[in-house]
Every structure is written in C-alpha cells, then in structure tokens.
Amino acid sequence: MSNTSIEIRNLYKIFGKSTRQYVEAVRNGMSKAELARTHGAILGLNDINISMAAGKIQVVMGLSGSGKSTLIRHINRLIEPTSGSIIIDGRNVLDMPEADLREFRRSQTAMVFQRFGLLPHRSVIDNVIFGLEVRGLDRLKARETGMRWIERVGLGGFEHRYPDELSGGMQQRVGLARALSNNASILLMDEAYSALDPLIRTDMQTMLLDLQTELKKTIVFITHDLDEALRLGDNIVILRDGSIVQQGDAQDILLRPADDYIQRFIKDVNRARFITVDAVMEALPATGLKSLPRLKSGATLETAALEIARASQDSGLVVNGRDEPVGLVTLRSITAALASPADSGAPA
C-alpha cells in the first residue's frame, strides 16, 4: 500500500532561453500569448499547485497543448522546471543530485506510455523484467516476479511471445505488468489508453481500478478524455494553456463547473453515470422510511433512478456500509442534478 503523496507547489515551466527572468512577469499577469510575442518564450506551466493524495488516482486532463504531459514529466524530472518544487517523501525532487534522482526513478516511480514503449526484440517476460534487470535483481527472482504480474494482467501463456505478435490491448497489459513489477509506489501513466479501441480501453480502465483496489498506488493519470477522467480519478485537475482551470472530484466538476470552458467540457457527458447519490441526498424525513428502496452510498444516479422506479416510489434511502440510513434521494433531486448548469440557469 502506497504512503507516497506528491505536493506540487508554484511550478512554472517556460521554454526558451534564459527563461527564469520571465517568471516574475508571468506571476504579475503576463499572458502566454504576450510572453511568446515579446520574448519568444513559451509558457508551458503557470503556477501549478496540486496536492496528490497517497494511494489515490490523480487525473490530469486537458486538450492538446494544455501542459498535461509536460506536468507529468516534471514529477520524475524528465523535464527541468523553471521554478517551483515537487515534494515527495519530504524531499524536493527538483533538488536531488544525479545519483539520488537516478535511484528515485528506478525504485519509486514507473511509467506506462501511450505507445507501449516495449522493446521489440525482447519477449513479453523479458520486457516485463527489464527494469528489474537494470536494478541488478537476480534473474530467477526477476522472472518469478515478472510471471506473477503477467498472470495478474491476464497474459498467462503469452510470456514467450514478442510485441508484434500481440494486439494493442495486450501490449498495454505488458507495459502495465512491467511498471507494476518494479514495485514502485508512484505510477505515472501518460495517455496510457489513448491509442486503444473503445472497448479495449474500457477493459483496461476496469483492470486498473481492480488492481488499484488492492495495490493502492499513487497514480498520476494523464488523459484528454473526460469520461475516462471521471471514471478513474479520485481527484481531477483540468488544465488549459498551462494553467489549472479547476480541480476536484467528479462531483465537483459536474455539479460546480468553474467557468464556461468547463461547462463546454461537460455538456455532453452522461452525468447519471458519474454523479453519486451522496452528492444530491437530502436530510432524512421523520416518517415513511420503511417502504422506500435502499441505495448504497456511492451508487450512481443512474442506478438510483432505476431502483426507485422499480419500487414504484418517488424517492429512496441512501444507506452506509452498515446499512444505516444517512440521507434521502428523490426523483426530483436526481432530475435537477442531471440538468447541466446552462440548462438549469444555475451559475457556473
């Protein structure tokens, strides 16, 4: 179980020459366009502050050019920042000397890439144990570890195949097994499922959630797909032009969009699949509870509406893990939550 949290504080990245001198100007309000026009420099990240909880999935999403891949590459310092800090286990990654940084990359972080990143001349098992070999682990022990993870990701029997003999989804499973075999506390996933077909992508999301229930890794997951972000993320950060537009859980994003930009993002989302009964429940009434259907805390509004309709009622009881009633959900509150802020006239 991971106890590794990540604190990103006042992180700036400006691409160009002698960029540190421009940080103060950006702090004082210089826009990305103005910085490019007047100094020929590109603002990649603008004052990023995120607290990534240990053992949770932190999603960072945005459109192309928003800075999400730049951000994830700062965590293991594949990209050097212009200013700021990234605190992991009480240490600022950006201050680590080369030897410490190399050990940090090998033992504490693992990456899963969009295009799989497999070595074509190595078999599945040899790809999976590559990182363990680099760390000097005995080959027999490395193979035992590798086979355990190959089985866990559903590739038992394929360990002697080569990447070009596998489908895209199978190759991504190899990449995930390789990352997990290193036993790193931080898993960095950069558009890991973007190259997959929709059905395979859904299967991989399910596998990740199932594994995370047990492993509790600190996962930073980059995506441009809002449905994926809402399904996977314990917390979601949405970037635009290198700046954070909004951060929060799925309920925050869907029910309290920060501005018109976020509203446009969420307008076509099937809200019933992601908003939970906990977000819309009301106080319990004094009477009339016995006949109402019981809805588990965390159930989606889609599930709640079906259960309430099946019971021929207009409301349902939300119950906690001990089956104790904690709130009431009505069809009226469900309908209100499923209307977008723009449709309902609510402020963004």
Describe the protein's architecture and organization.
By secondary structure, this protein is an alpha/beta fold. It has 2 domains: 52-269, 3-Layer(aba) Sandwich (Rossmann fold), CATH 3.40.50.300; 272-344, CBS-domain, CATH 3.10.580.10. 38% of the residues lie in helices and 22% in strands. It has helices at 23-27, 32-39, 68-75, 98-107, 124-128, 130-134, 139-152, 168-181, 198-215, 226-232, 250-255, 260-266, 277-280, 301-310, 331-338, 341-344; strands at residues 6-15, 42-52, 57-61, 83-88, 91-92, 109-113, 186-190, 218-223, 235-240, 243-248, 294-296, 315-319, 325-330. The strands form 3 sheets. It has a 6-stranded mixed beta sheet with strand order 6-7-8-3-9-10, sandwiched between helices. It has a 4-stranded antiparallel beta sheet with strand order 2-1-4-5. Strands 11-12-13 form a 3-stranded mixed beta sheet. Strand 7 (186-190), helix 9 and strand 8 (218-223) form a beta-alpha-beta unit. Helix 7 packs across helix 8 (168-181). The longest helix is centred in the middle third of the chain and has 18 residues, at 198-215. It starts with 5 loop residues before the first strand and ends with a helix.
Précis, in short:
The chain has helices spanning 23-27, 32-39, 68-75, 98-107, 124-128, 130-134, 139-152, 168-181, 198-215, 226-232, 250-255, 260-266, 277-280, 301-310, 331-338, 341-344, and strands at residues 6-15, 42-52, 57-61, 83-88, 91-92, 109-113, 186-190, 218-223, 235-240, 243-248, 294-296, 315-319, 325-330.
Name the overall outline: globular
Low-confidence stretches: 344-348
- Termini gap: 38 Å
Approximately what portion of the residues adopt beta-strand conformation? 15-25%
Based on secondary structure, the structural category is alpha/beta
Return the CATH class of the largest domain.
Answer: Alpha Beta
- In CATH, the topology of the largest domain is named Rossmann fold
Summed up, the domain count is: 2
Largest sheet properties: 6 strands, mixed
Please count the helical segments: 16
Order of helices and strands: EHHEEHEEHEHHHHEHEHEEHHHEHEEHH
CATH architectural grouping of the largest domain: 3-Layer(aba) Sandwich
Please name the fourth-level CATH homologous superfamily of the largest domain.
Answer: P-loop containing nucleotide triphosphate hydrolases
Annotation, overall tally of beta strands: 13
Arithmetic mean of pLDDT: 90
Oligomer: single chain
**Helicity, as a percent range:** 25-40%
Radius of gyration from the CA trace? 23 Å
